Amino acid sequence: MSGIGAERTAAIAAKVEAFVRDVVIPYEKDPRRDHHNCPTEELVEELKALAREAGVLTPHILADGSHLNQRETAQVLIRTGLSPLGPLACNTAAPDEGNMYLLGKVGSAEIKRRFLDPLVSGSGRSCFFMTEPASLQGAGSDPSMMITTCRRDGNHWVVNGKKAFSTGAQGAKVGIVMARSEEDDSKGGACMFLVDLPDPAIIVTHVPNTIDNSMPGGHCEVTIDNLRIPADQMLGNAGEGFTYAQVRLSPARLSHCMRWLGACWRAHEIATDYANRRIAFGKTLIDHEGVGFMLAENMIDLKQAELMIDWCADVLDTGALGTVESSMAKVAVSEALMRVADRCVQVMGGSGVTDHTVVEQVFREIRSFRIYDGPTEVHKWSLAKKIKRDWKAAQAGAHR
């Protein structure tokens, strides 16, 4: 992807940053929260309206429908992440951002018109139904364990199963449903379908309280009971759903890294300000090596995370699937940002564990980030398998 150039990207990023800092951050204390302490639809819609007015709604997708390349997207999404509300306001939040990317890559013209356009315009949220309940031994980090099924019935497909951690399902208008095909010509592969929400065949059965609360609609468990979907609402071809999942997941993992890097930039700013103002034992905290060194280590981790994001973005911009690179970035960035958030809490002491600043929330959200889109251990295992494959290939080549 060639992109729009550094100067134009910098202008968009600066506009987004000014909007998040000046307009969005004051809303962080807004009391409009649901019983899971997530932002209400009313609050999100108000913020989107302000972003639309400021010209920063869905800033990574241009007016002609073209998408910034991944390196350019990073510059923009990092800035939206400066507040937990920033991605919601600017329409760059998960799962919408990843779903928009997938539909833009794979969707037919009609699917784009009907399902992608409302997401880009910010007139509706979406949900990605892939993960399944662990209690049923369903698909989680291993999508090959998928137990939700789909079968043909005339000009429709019928889907049955259960899903878990379906982020934003409550209140979403667009759903992407993933199911394993029972049809012989699909060879047991998965299919993806686009559906309008709500649908009476998709029943929210439970919304667990989780450590994070930045996303409206919760992380829902749902039952899919004889969901009938017209055949023309299949995304791509039958049996190729796992391939499309990879098309989505690599840039989506990287987008998480981008947004949470912005959040940790902000947390580091707050901790730095605190350390330069707070006096203990006769001098400011930053002049105590134990505190000053933590902030210095933050600088190093933040820069390394930024460089890892840029490296992975460059790989994806070549058109490569980038699954190995995105796994490496997901591990390196999530673990580095966890260290940053933890140090920020520690530097601020008692203040760091209160909701007086956003630092406490950033710490909780980053902890979740280490699990979402594949926990660290799964990515390391995947990388270890690649190392073994490469070693075997090298050995075979050496003995020819």
Automatic annotation (TrEMBL):
Pfam families: Acyl-CoA_dh_1, Acyl-CoA_dh_M, Acyl-CoA_dh_N. InterPro entries: Acyl-CoA_dehydrogenase, Acyl-CoA_Oxase/DH_mid-dom, Acyl-CoA_Oxase/DH_mid-dom_sf, AcylCo_DH-like_C, AcylCo_DH/oxidase_C, AcylCoA_DH/ox_N, AcylCoA_DH/ox_N_sf, AcylCoA_DH/oxidase_NM_dom_sf. GO terms for biological process: fatty acid beta-oxidation using acyl-CoA dehydrogenase. Residues 9-122 form the Acyl-CoA dehydrogenase/oxidase N-terminal domain. GO terms for molecular function: acyl-CoA dehydrogenase activity; flavin adenine dinucleotide binding. Residues 127-225 form the Acyl-CoA oxidase/dehydrogenase middle domain. Gene3D superfamilies: Acyl-CoA dehydrogenase/oxidase, N-terminal domain, Butyryl-CoA Dehydrogenase, subunit A, domain 2, Butyryl-CoA Dehydrogenase, subunit A, domain 3. Residues 239-386 form the Acyl-CoA dehydrogenase/oxidase C-terminal domain. The keyword Oxidoreductase applies. Transmembrane segments: none annotated. The keyword Protease does not apply. Its cofactor is FAD. Keywords: FAD, Flavoprotein, Oxidoreductase. GO terms for cellular component: cytoplasm. Belongs to the acyl-CoA dehydrogenase family. Homodimer. This is Acyl-CoA dehydrogenase. It comes from Novosphingobium colocasiae. The lineage of its organism: Bacteria, Pseudomonadati, Pseudomonadota, Alphaproteobacteria, Sphingomonadales.
